[in-house]
Structure formats: structure tokens, C-alpha cells
Amino acid sequence: MSVSSADALELKPFKDDLFAYPATLSTGDNGTYTVLDYREMRDINQRDEVPEKRVHAQYTDPGVRKVQQDLMLKTDAGDVRHIAVGKTEGAAIIVLYLHGQGGSRKQGVDDFTFGGNFNRIKNLMAENGGLYLSPDFPDFGDRGAAQVAALIDHYAEKSPGAKIFVACGSMGGILCWKLAAQNDTGRRIDGLLLLGSLWDESFLSSPAFRRHVPVFFGQGSKDPVFPVEKQEAFFRSIIARSKAYPTRFVRFETGTHGTPIRMVDWRGTLNWMLSKAP
């Protein structure tokens, strides 16, 4: 796929009505900052058949498992177990999900938890000629970052026209920032999604920042692990450094630590990133 056609890629809808954001309570920072009306009673208890364990059937299409594979990639950094959904060669877009503390590659492909949102990203990739990757990694340090970077390298070479986006849940954000800071990977990735995650001032001097790689922040206002105020301050430090920087912040009012993983609008966010990617 040529670069020009990749630039024109726009993900087709998949259950957009069910996954639409709740009402906007307020906006700021020239429209880049949004506060949404999240409600646990509606957004978990009504959406799930078994709260936090199994979403109602209409939110998922499990047929996507036909194009899901559990794979092992041998790399110089070690063996990388990962689950791949969609086109492992010639993909138009590649999205990785990096789990947080206590997670595994299975979290990012679970069809029924997090309100069916992982099933949605799997279907979005499968239906748009894309590839979705959910890897295991040994830690959130340099070894983990080296294995994820090797995985990105491998699939980027098999899909040279693909834009590459990395979504990081919670502690996985450490790896997002490490990848952005690397000379090779920081020049290869095209967008970062921080979901209930943390901040890293070193990003402001990274290769990814210099390339104006789009950054999306989703955070619950009652996140007990990473305080929303600190993530908001970091988001504003990016804008302060570069007013035109492509970044967005969505605050889920009353949401907690896992809320952004459940609630992020994958299609809307990735289409914005595709339009801004370097």
C-alpha cells in the first residue's frame, strides 16, 4: 500500500451507535480537552450481562476469532508471545495494545470484558485491512521495551505502508514512553494512546515528539492509581511546548482506573490519528 493511500485511510464504522461517547459536560483547550458524563450504573451495569465480566451480546461479533492467531516471534531480545488479529502481511494499519500490571496478551483480545471494547478494535482492524497485536512482555523496563520494539519492527517490515499506533493501558504507558524515546521506534510509530496511564516528561525531547506523533489521553477523574490532575498537567505541558501539537484529552467524569480502556472510542480516535499522523 502506498503512503498516499495510507494517508487517506479512514476506518469504516463498527457498532458506532453502541460505542458512542456519552454526553459532553464541558470542553477546553481549544476543543482538545473534553469532559464526558461517565456513569458506572449505565456504562457498566446496564451494558454488561455480568458486570465487568461479560458484556451483552449485541456489543460483540465473535466471528472475528476466525482471523485471530496465538503466535511466537523469535527476536534478538527474546521470544515474544503475541496474539495477532487480521492481516499479518500487507496491513493498512497496525494497532498494538500493551497491558498493565498483572495483565497478559489475553487481556487485549478478550471479547467480553471492558464492555466489549477489545472485540470492537479487533473487528475494526479485521474489517479495514488492518492488524491488531496484543503481546506478552517480561517487564515494563528496557527488556520489555526491546521485545515490543522487535515485534513492531517485524510487522512494520511485513506491512511497509501501515501506520502504527500503540495503545498503553495503565503501567503499559511506561513502554509507550520508552518506545517514543527510541531513535528507531520513535521514528516508526505514528500515534500513542494512553489509557488510564501515566506521564513522562522525557517525551518532550523524544524523536516521536519531534515528529509530532499524535497523543491521546483517556483518564477517569477518580483514578486512584494515576491522578487525573497529573495527567492533565502533562497534557497541557505538551500544548505549552507546541500549540499546534496533535493531542487530545478525554476525562471520564467519575470514572476510575479501567474506565478509559472500556470507554475509548477506538474508531474516532484512530481516524483522528490517521488524519494527523506524520
Question: Overview of this structure, please?
Answer:
By secondary structure, the chain is α/β, with parallel strands linked by helices. The chain has one domain: Rossmann fold (3-Layer(aba) Sandwich), CATH 3.40.50.1820. It has ten helices and twelve strands. It has helices spanning 3-7, 16-19, 40-46, 117-127, 142-158, 173-181, 207-210, 228-241, 259-263, 266-276, and strands at residues 24-28, 33-36, 48-50, 54-55, 68-75, 78-86, 93-98, 131-135, 163-169, 191-195, 215-220, 247-252. Strands 1-2-12-11-10-9-7-8-6-5 form a ten-stranded mixed beta sheet, sandwiched between helices. It has a two-stranded antiparallel ribbon with strand order 3-4. Helix 5 packs across helix 6 (173-181). The radius of gyration is 17 Å and the shape is globular. The two termini are 16 Å apart.
Order of helices and strands: HHEEHEEEEEHEHEHEHEHEHH
CATH topology: Rossmann fold
Kindly report the average pLDDT value: 96
Q: Describe the strand arrangement of the main beta sheet, using strand numbers.
A: 1-2-12-11-10-9-7-8-6-5
Low-confidence stretches: 1-6
TL;DR?
The protein is an alpha/beta fold and 278 residues long.
Helices, strands, pairings?
Elements: H1 3-7, H2 16-19, E1 24-28, E2 33-36, H3 40-46, E3 48-50, E4 54-55, E5 68-75, E6 78-86, E7 93-98, H4 117-127, E8 131-135, H5 142-158, E9 163-169, H6 173-181, E10 191-195, H7 207-210, E11 215-220, H8 228-241, E12 247-252, H9 259-263, H10 266-276
Parallel strand pairs: 2-12, 7-8, 7-9, 9-10, 10-11, 11-12
Antiparallel strand pairs: 1-2, 3-4, 5-6, 6-8
Helix pairs in contact: 5-6
